[in-house]
Design a protein that fits this description.
The chain is mainly β. It has 3 helices and 28 strands. It has a 4-stranded antiparallel beta sheet with strand order 1-2-3-4, with no helix packed on it. The protein has a 4-stranded antiparallel beta sheet with strand order 5-6-7-8, with no helix packed on it.
């Protein structure tokens, strides 16, 4: 997630594919942290970076400079090896690189009106996708090789999503998700679901990719807000929880499992049988808010690192969800909360740790 505004000390932030590490780019360089311990594992002070993406916990980084130095052009993608401290390969483009996504087989490079698909090992171009103008580099990527999809905006006036199969190199479907242009999109880890938010930021929708059908709609709030990030829980089966950050300064969590159970109960009732599914979806109540996590307007990025099932003391022989939610603010802080949701849809948030990303001291280099 890159940020081109000069008002923040952090220019970009990203977690790797299994959220075991995260990286930030600043005006001075980039840093890589261990998500579990918060340890700074690698840093490089060579100038500003607007994109830093990891390949799992390997030594390979895909980095793009902020353009403050000739050698760090935003039109140049560098595949950087943290073990050797040197560039492995470089790719140059006619316009600025706005986003990068990768897995063990594919490298995706998003420009304003084109997206390139590369074979990661040979760096040969496999396909070029002509897109609508995409000045924010908005995209989503599922790193799973079994359900490896790329999502891109399909319209500048509506919230339509193009879903592209990156392994088989063809368009999979187009989803008309919102009436307003898209602001955020994300896949579930297995590529089965996609969550979207529009520039209005009031409704978050979840679609099943295989059928391009809407499964959920959650109301974030009544007033418009900019959605900064969306993230599913790490489950490789059915996603348990979806989390969102917004310009309101709050973190919103939506329990998909509880939403399905409650919607099923409504559908089996008399009123549920006569109210359309689209109305039922909007009324899904599985919504849990942590207010004032960051000052309003400060950009933030949250992921759900893990979800456990624990005994639910409120109901005998039942279980509750316990989610670990990590939050990076572009003002320079890392926060981590535990969110517990029981079967009655009651929730509680607990702050586990908080530290400053900009003053962290390096420990040792990440493993190759």
């Amino acid at each position: 997630m890159a940020n081109h505004s000069s008002s923040y000390p952090i220019l970009c932030a990203s977690f790797n594919q299994d959220t075991s590490y995260f990286a930030i780019g600043t005006r001075d360089g980039f840093k890589v942290f261990d998500s579990e311990t918060g340890t700074l594992r690698y840093e490089r002070a060579i100038g500003g970076f607007i994109i830093v993406e990891m390949l799992f916990s390997s030594s390979l980084l895909a980095i793009v400079g902020a353009g403050e130095q000739p050698s760090l052009s935003p039109r140049r993608l560098c595949l950087f090896n943290t073990t050797t401290g040197a560039a492995r390969r470089e790719l140059n483009f006619l316009t600025s690189v706005l986003a990068i996504r990768l897995n063990r087989k594919r490298l995706v490079v998003v420009l304003q009106e084109k997206t390139y698909i590369y074979d990661l090992n040979s760096l040969s171009i496999l396909d070029t996708i002509d897109t609508v103008p995409n000045s924010k580099g908005l995209c989503a990527f599922s790193p799973s090789l079994d359900g490896c999809f790329l999502a891109l905006p399909a319209s500048t006036t509506r919230g339509s999503v193009l879903v592209y199969n990156v392994m088989e190199l063809h368009s999979h479907c187009e989803i008309d998700a919102h009436r307003s242009p898209l602001a955020a999109i994300v896949f579930s880890p297995n590529g089965m679901y996609i969550a979207t938010a529009s520039e209005q930021g009031t409704i978050i929708r979840v679609h099943l990719i295989s059928e391009a059908t809407k499964s959920y709609s959650f109301r974030r709030g009544a007033y418009p807000s900019t959605i900064f990030s969306l993230s599913f829980g790490p489950s490789t089966q059915f996603p348990d929880v979806l989390v969102a950050t917004s310009s309101s300064g709050s973190v919103h969590a939506f329990s998909l499992g509880l939403g399905m159970n409650q919607r099923s109960r409504r559908s089996s009732s008399f009123f549920g049988s006569i109210i359309p599914d689209s109305v039922n979806d909007v009324l899904d109540p599985a919504h849990h808010v942590l207010h004032n996590v960051v000052p309003a307007g400060v950009k933030s990025y949250a992921v759900i690192r893990k979800v456990d099932r624990v005994p639910d003391t409120s109901i005998s022989e039942s279980v509750a969800y316990r989610a670990t939610v990590s939050i990076i603010t572009y003002s320079g802080s890392f926060q981590e909360y535990t969110l517990i949701i029981n079967q009655k849809n009651e929730s509680s948030w607990h702050l586990e740790r908080r530290f400053d990303l900009l003053t962290a001291i390096s420990d040792n280099i990440i493993s190759s």
